Amino acid sequence: MKFVTVAGPPSSGKTAVLIHTIRHLLEDGTKVVVGKIDCLGTNDGEKYQKLGIPVIVGLSGDICPDHFYVPNLEVIFNWAKEKSAHIAILETAGLCHRCAPAIKGCLAISVVDNLSNIDVPQKIGPMLSTADIVVITKGDIVSQAEREVYRRKMELINPGAEILEVNGLTGKGSLLLKTSIMQAADVDTITGRELRSSMPACVCSYCTGEKRIGKSFQLGYIKKIEATETKGGGG
Amino acid sequence: MGEDIRKITLIGGTTKSGDKETIERLEIHKGDIITLVGPTGSGKSELLSDIEQLARGDTPSNRAVILNDGELNRWGRQMVAQLSQAMNFVLDMPVEDFLELHASSRGTSNNPVIEEVMGLTNSLSGEPIDARDNITSLSGGQSRALMIADIAVISDAPVVLIDEIENAGINRLMALEILSAKGKIVIVASHDPLIILMAQKRIVMHNGGMFKVLERNKQEGEILKKLIVMDNELSALRDTLRRGGSAGIAGAAVNCRVQAHEADGGDH
Q1: Is pLDDT above 70 for A235?
Q2: How do residues A34-61 score in pLDDT, each as one tens digit?
Q3: Is residue B8 over pLDDT 90?
Q4: In what order do the strands lie in the sheet with A107-113?
Q5: How far apart are CA B143 and CA B194, in angstroms?
Q6: Taking CB atoms and an 8 Å limit, are B102 and A114 in contact across chains?
Q7: Whole domain around residue A43: which residue ranges?
Q8: Which of A26, A112, A144, A151 to mutate against chain B (most B CBs within 10 Å)?
Q9: Are B7 and B74 found together in one domain?
Q10: Domain containing residue A97: CATH number
Q11: Is B53's CB within 8 Å of A173's CB?
Q12: Could you tell me if residue A101 is inside a domain?
């Protein structure tokens, strides 16, 4: 079974791109299942169900969705195996951009769009730099020049990645993505594999539901900003 | 840049009703300008998309698109430039910074290139722009002119796919000439008679399929000449009226001439 992780900022087109790609996979008779990790709520699960494939949705609730993602990898992997899937695709929440869900030995896809600020690639660092495939969406509504500039930025951040332009509305480009997914290696187990990038330290009192502000309520791993002004910060 | 594109061969697939396309094979050569004609929904954009994706019987049309003699199975980097009406600039910066960013992303950063783009842009657009203008403040026509000049000079891709050059106050004829210079292959989907007849060859689309290929005939060549005159008159009239001038008619009705008016200092 191929195990594929998909990351990317909110509204970059992850689900739209995947739906077109999965359609191509299904046409070839490939058995696909999808896992979707989100925070509070999502209707992406229903969108995938309309393709007639098994879907599992995990909502992290109070927990950081990436911290929720890692301990649930085995659950999702084993579920996909039970469904005798050829390909399991796991779409992550993509919220704070600190983390990257990529796993060593499993195909990692990141989806970003041409509309985002030119500095976004730096902001979402690991999510891009650890990906095997970077999918760029919304190329149909920006200029040729911007598409080229954007693509170049991606190449500089992740020189080894395959960069694909996909239109989430029409599905244009999703065939190439399908072909690349089919070339990914099969994996027997997820247990013992490693993440390509570490998760954030995240064990403070606020992780466990604390709401009150103030030093005396802060327990655990706390990091403070050094109160020195950034240069050029005005008056 | 990169490998040379000598020709693109389209191998017919199926129409929307699943019948075989009338055109079974069509070769497009270096330096050709081809237009795609047909009502909305006839399959013009799909054909452009097949070319962009290098379809190999795997798109809804079941068409195949072959580059040169088939030795390339994917477009190389930056071989295809695209332009459509839906495209906008989204980066917020001065035009000159933007052009520099684009040029440097292609490893060709230098001032002459930027000056060349600015020169072309301003010859295409009725309203000149300044290199220090912010790119998001440009009008529709100015943006389109800049996009075309930028594709021609900085992108310089061997294949240019265009989904309609709208009449946004830019010189469409010159735009096509600029884009097709240097032996590029230019394929344009259009509803505009001037653009359609500009091309020697046009593919008539029907029901999702390539229905027939027409060459511009002698009479159409004559009509094109008339259209060019009419288009120039229309542009001149537009300019005059916009600058607060008045227009008049001299001679026959067709021979509408615009009287020059010096309402303002003029831009050129």
Answers
A1: no
A2: 999 988 888 888 999 999 999 999 988 8
A3: yes
A4: A55-59, A32-38, A87-91, A2-7, A107-113, A133-137, A162-165
A5: 21
A6: no
A7: 2-182
A8: A144
A9: yes
A10: 3.40.50.300
A11: yes
A12: yes
